[in-house]
Amino acid sequence: MRNRLIKKINEARRKKSKLFCAYLTLGYPSVSFTARLIEELEKSGADIIELGFPFSDPLADGPTIQASSGYALRHNVKFNDALRLVRSLRKRGVGIPIIFFSYYNPIYQHGLARFAKDIRRAGFDGVISPDLSPEEDPAFGRALRKEKLSLVYLVAPTSSSRRIRMIARKTSGFIYLVSLKGVTGARRKLGADIAAYVAKIRSSASKAVLVGFGVSTPGEARRISKLGDGVIVGSAFIDSIRRSKSKLKTVASFASRMIRAAKGKG
Amino acid sequence: MGSLPDKGGHFSIFGGRYVPETLVAALDELTVAYRKARRDKSFQRELRYYLENYVGRPTPLFFARNLTRVYGGGRIYLKREDLCHTGAHKINNTVAQALLAKRLGKCRLIAETGAGQHGVATATAARLFGLECEVFMGEEDIKRQALNVFKMKLLGAKVTPVTSGSKTLKDATNEAMRDWVATVDTTHYLLGSTVGPHPFPMMVRDFQSVIGRETRQQARKIAKRLPDYIIACVGGGSNSLGMFYPFLKDRVKLIGIEAAGLGLNTHYHAASINKGRTGILHGMKTLVLQDEEGQIQLAHSVSAGLDYPGVGPEHAYLKHTGRVKYEAITDREALGAFDDLTKLEGILPALESAHAIAYAKKLARRTRPRDVVVVCLSGRGDKDIDIVKNKL
User: Which of A56, A73, A131 is nearest residue B18 as measured by Cβ atoms?
Assistant: First the structure.
């Protein structure tokens, strides 16, 4: 299967460079801000965008992303905004791989096959759904494969070796390795045992491993990114948007420090 | 019927497990422990001991002579779960799960609560077995149910107000799951209804089935036969499923009563079965109140215990197969039934249970005098006194 995401990952592995994936809540604080920030992130060298579709009951998320999702929903962000946004970015030549991140219910309500077709046409490359266990709804995986879209599954610190092997087999693109037992949100420092844990996953899977949850400083981005194939940063960006009162320049400069650090350049 | 759910916790297309990966190991561990406990005579003996000597089982099946006379139809019998320790059926499940948690070596219980009945029942079981306890409760519900909040605190539980989302039961459930994701090594999530990811819907159903099993025996003894109708209210669905489950294979008409709030044609109700669509909430696939985009909608009911935008997956399945009929009762009708039962029998029902009583009144016209109608009186009404005072 070829899509922008797979190409990007293969290329990074060939060049032995680290991948940087940024999570943004769609429509926080506005859809046009999200669009401009994605362009900035691409320019700064980010490799993958996870575009978070807001959900009323985000049970894997901490206060930061809960608040940004609630804000977006109160400002009437709809499914079509996600499609329109990515369609217009692609038209403007933005080539960065974009993953549709959503809790499973909004996807399910759209209709699985229709969802796959619609997001493919808009220019998405894959899907992450944090509450879709790999055992459930195999029809969804089939619908995505038909549209050449990747379905990325998560591995957690509590996953058994047998599950890790199963998830590594089923995931497409990369393995999203959840760094800690808990919800999303910035942490000052991740536990010391993270290195051994990432090593364990890497030894049992040949696919790329990106580590997410809690990475919030350039120092942590550098340290964690070294362990696997790269890092995923989300809440730290949302915090930066909130703290800077949505100043694009401030957020973009924080992003570029994070990206350089993750790639071992800063 | 005995074969459901399947190994993955599915009731046909409903149920299953839609959870963050971090929780899968704990759910697997719980499933194995529960299956073992179910076969383990010493666990069953211990559970029976506490149900008889602590909870106060069996609860009576009471012939409501006055209510029968006034409603003017079949003979109405009340299954008196309101007489359970702590005042509702919830404790059947909390004592059982707390015992199981001890077996799993967990030292802390967490729970979500809406009306506060499940919170009180969990705090109580935690005291009994010497476990730590934290209860998540929506800020709105804390205001509505001050008495139960105070009780939980007296029982040594930490009551954590939930300020996210709608600040009610659904958000308390999210918050309990978020806590569990972070504390899964030491903590058991004591879910209070037949909802959530597998194995909870199956396990809570089994623990509550004592209601239906007793009712069967008692009906045979007192009324000399099985009931013709059984009525129970449905929020998440634990008292109703516990009551219905042992009768699924019998020729008994089973009727679940949802909260119609201000009316099924308004936006203010909690009738997920009658008005919801199939979707995913709190780890299960079931019938859910939601908008066209799949955002979960707020439920409304005068009764905090029915105020939930989803329902247990087995109920969704029983609706699907047609085995159980689901009706809805408005706030106003429920309050009327509260008054009826109080005045006629000297029993103050929980507003949840008052929904079932209200339907018994409607049904009466269609029943014959020799019919046996059982109503599950799932809880007592003390907790609702303030609400009733303001509304009547």
Answer: A131
Please answer yes or no on whether B178 and A183 come within 8 Å at the CB atom. Answer: yes
In this structure, the strands spanning A150-152 and A154-155 are unpaired
Closest chain B residue to A167, measured at CA: B21
B240 vs B92: CA distance, rounded Å: 13
pLDDT at A205: 84
Written as one letter, the residue type at A152 is V
**What is the value of ipTM here, to two decimals?**
0.96
The candidate with the shortest Cα–Cα distance to B356, out of B89, B1, B108, is: B89
Contacts of A183 in chain B (CB under 8 A): 178, 181-182
CATH no. of A4-262:
3.20.20.70
Interface test with B, best of A83, A105, A181 (most B CBs within 10 A): A105
- pLDDT(A167) > 50: yes
A&B contacts, CB < 8 Å: 118
Burial B164-187, CB ≥16 within 10 A → b, else e: bbbbbbbbbbbbbbbbbbebbeeb
Residue spans per domain, chain A: 4-262
pLDDT of amino acid B38: 95
Residue B219's nearest CA partner among B54, B382, B373 is B373
Q: In the prediction, which pLDDT does A89 show?
A: 98
Active site residue B303: no
B62-109: pLDDT as tens digits: 999 999 999 999 999 999 999 999 999 999 999 999 999 999 999 999
- Cβ separation B295–A106 shorter than 8 A: yes
Strand arrangement, sheet containing B158-162 = B158-162, B132-138, B108-113, B187-189
Q: How many residues does chain B have?
A: 392
Q: Answer for the pair B305, B117: CB distance below 8 angstroms, yes or no.
A: yes
Hey, are the CB atoms on A158 and B24 less than 8 Å from each other?
yes
Closest CA in chain B for residue A154: B21
The sheet with strand B14-15 has its strands ordered as: B10-11, B14-15, B284-288, B277-281
Handedness of CA B232, B234, B235, B236 (dihedral sign): positive
